[in-house]
Q: What sequence folds into this?
């Protein structure tokens, strides 16, 4: 089992920055890929960014490329999502997730953290 706890959400103005954190516990993450997803009341959960824990490779949704950066801290077992140049359309509940890197589906999810961006 992997337990994930997000933090760092809040309410900001357009153009501001926020950094989300996801603290992981329960297993070593060396074989895992960590992802961030977001969901609004009107839309299904969507992929935002992911990082392979061991190799460090990353990928991003087109809508956040160049603005968001995913990273990890091995010592703290924590994944971060640095969000810059925030837009109102980034408003959503953000979820951290984990999957075994050998598989496609994410098996573990955090409780989510709200990000609200005002124009």
A:
């Amino acid at each position: 089992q992997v337990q994930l706890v997000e933090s760092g959400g809040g309410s900001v103005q357009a153009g501001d920055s926020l950094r989300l954190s996801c603290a992981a516990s329960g297993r070593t993450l060396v074989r895992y890929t960590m992802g961030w997803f977001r969901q609004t009341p009107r839309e299904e959960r969507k992929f935002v960014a992911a990082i392979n824990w061991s190799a460090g490779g990353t990928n991003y949704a087109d809508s956040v490329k160049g603005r968001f950066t995913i990273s990890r801290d091995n010592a703290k077992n924590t994944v971060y999502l640095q969000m810059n140049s925030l837009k109102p359309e980034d408003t959503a509940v953000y979820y951290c997730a984990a999957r075994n890197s050998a598989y496609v589906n994410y098996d573990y999810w955090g409780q989510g953290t709200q990000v609200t961006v005002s124009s």
